[in-house]
Design brief:
Elements (H helix, E strand, L loop, with lengths): L6 H12 L7 E6 L8 E8 H13 L10 H9 L4 H5 E8 L11 E6 L4 H16 L5 H12 L6 E6 L11 E5 L2 H11 L1
Antiparallel strand pairs: 1-2, 2-3, 3-4, 4-5, 5-6
Helix pairs in contact: 2-3, 5-6
Length: 192
């Protein structure tokens, strides 16, 4: 690991990991190879009812790495039985960027989706944007996301919805689509 992760990155990873509650079933380190910087990011994966219970306990204890002003309400809704985020998503990824010379920012949040219809995807995007930014997602954005989903080939799927916090200055919701290679170009042309 020491040949891939420099001492400064290792120190930043260790500092964040030491204060991180046991809410995940899996973790990962994302390395920025060839970027000319000593940088690695921390990813934590949580799933199922056990993951939701662990996360709810950590939130109740006020764990600092989970307490960002836009992050906490999103995580609370994911742990709340019957809430849209809890009912329509299966898992949660938190990606903590650990830039050189700085503290970690509010993490990028990824949700694993549970067989959503295009309209349900639109509802989920509206809800996450409202929680994270206090503003609704634009109707053009919702129509584009729903169109992407309606245009998927039969064996394609939208696997994750990543909705960044306002601190990243990213205005768009990100989708990760799994599309068979034989259909990928046609699908991209269809969705524009």
């Amino acid at each position: 690991c020491s040949t891939l992760v420099g001492p400064a990155s290792l120190e930043r990873l260790g500092r964040l990991a030491k204060g991180f509650p046991p809410v995940g079933s899996t973790g990962a380190i994302e390395l920025h190879l060839g970027a000319g910087v000593d940088r690695a990011d921390l990813l934590v994966f949580s799933d199922g009812q056990g993951g939701k219970r662990q996360l709810a306990r950590a939130l109740a204890q006020g764990t600092p790495v989970l307490n960002g002003p836009s992050l906490r309400p999103l995580l609370e809704e994911w742990t709340m039985p019957g809430a849209l985020l809890s009912a329509r998503t299966s898992l949660l990824w938190l990606e903590y960027d650990l830039p050189e010379g700085g503290e970690s920012r509010t993490p990028m949040v990824y949700f694993g989706l549970l067989g959503l219809s295009p309209a349900e995807l639109g509802d989920l995007v509206r809800r996450t944007r409202q929680i994270l930014t206090g503003r609704a997602a634009g109707s053009a954005q919702i129509r584009a996301l729903e169109s992407c989903m309606r245009s998927l080939p039969g064996d394609g799927q939208i696997t994750f919805l990543a909705d960044p916090s306002a601190s990243r200055n990213v205005q768009h919701v990100r989708l990760i689509a799994q599309v068979p290679r034989a259909c990928a170009w046609t699908w991209l042309e269809r969705v524009g």
